[in-house]
């Protein structure tokens, strides 16, 4: 996992007295030219009237209203990465958020926060009003939409890259978010909490059961599954099971029915956030005639519909606990374990080691250059 600053801003300009940029209205000019002629009392009245006028004008503009309502705690952050949004709320630092993406559906999100689209349809007009110091994205700089970096530079806003690949990377991401939000204590507390909760799930799985083959499917059409090298695969291993998709290339393999039949899973979990209530009946029907597959034969097909089941955020603990509980209730105890599976913890899964040291820090952005248009 990498979390890189792909665009960093310089210092935020200071606020001019009276909110006016012209030198004509500077304090020095008023004292030098106005004060001797009108006297101290008249000068104070002028100042009071100007300030009141600016105040009244500002209260009548939608732009100033948006800025006042979503000023946020410094540093201010806009997130178009739902997993990062979830982690910020989980560490108790939600007051830093001034905007979220259109795909943030978690129940704890402040409904008053403006929605600023996503990576390919970002609401730059709204971001101009909100003035965040950081925007969280989830892609490499080379894959950013055309002009994205130029918009960030114009707004003096740092684009901070979040990429969640493995389960262990979530800890690194919490650590980095704590750094940019200046909330180190809160981020450290969240890391410890996730560690402790996942450790409980893992220990519950070490009860002498054989490691069942688990297949994770991420769409209702049976076209995409969880392969090796991603955080969901790590969760499967952490709960004492084997990922049936490990034999296929790529972290998210595309498969056909013939390939699925060869995998022979003992449990099938569909991860379908916010799916309809009848989704389970629909997906079960897609396995008609496949009774030679243990999961189908033994009626071990489940649909997990919670909003977080495909999100690499703080709720990976909930997902791990759900799957572990289903397996422990239905998978028999006492099956002989092969010698190579008698381990206390999977080597490639998350460990209790401290979060990795942060090496990326904001750096001045280079001169703006057009990015190549993506196909």
Describe the model.
With 375 residues, this protein is α/β, with parallel strands linked by helices. The protein is 37% helix and 9% strand. The protein contains twelve helices and nine strands. The strands form two sheets. A five-stranded mixed β-sheet has the order 1-5-4-2-3. It has a four-stranded parallel β-sheet with strand order 7-6-8-9, sandwiched between helices. Helix 6 packs antiparallel against helix 7 and helix 7 runs parallel beside helix 12 (316-330). The protein is globular, with a radius of gyration of 27 Å.
Distinctive features:
375 residues, alpha/beta, five-stranded mixed sheet, four-stranded parallel sheet, 12 helices, 9 strands, disordered N terminus, disordered C terminus
Low-pLDDT windows of residues: 1-70, 334-375
* Largest sheet: number of strands, sense, barrel closure: 5 strands, mixed
Q: What is the strand content?
A: 5-15%
Distance between the first and last residues' Cα: 25 Å
Q: Which structural class best describes the helix and strand composition?
A: alpha/beta
Kindly summarize this structure in a few lines:
The protein is of the alpha/beta class. 37% of the residues lie in helices and 9% in strands.
Q: What does the secondary structure layout of this molecule look like, with pairings?
A:
Blueprint: E1 5-7, H1 27-59, H2 62-69, E2 77-79, H3 82-90, E3 97-100, H4 124-130, E4 134-137, H5 148-154, E5 158-161, H6 169-181, H7 184-205, E6 213-217, H8 231-238, E7 242-243, H9 257-263, E8 267-271, H10 279-285, H11 294-297, E9 301-304, H12 316-330
Parallel strand pairs: 2-3, 2-4, 4-5, 6-7, 6-8, 8-9
Antiparallel strand pairs: 1-5
Helix pairs in contact: 6-7, 7-12
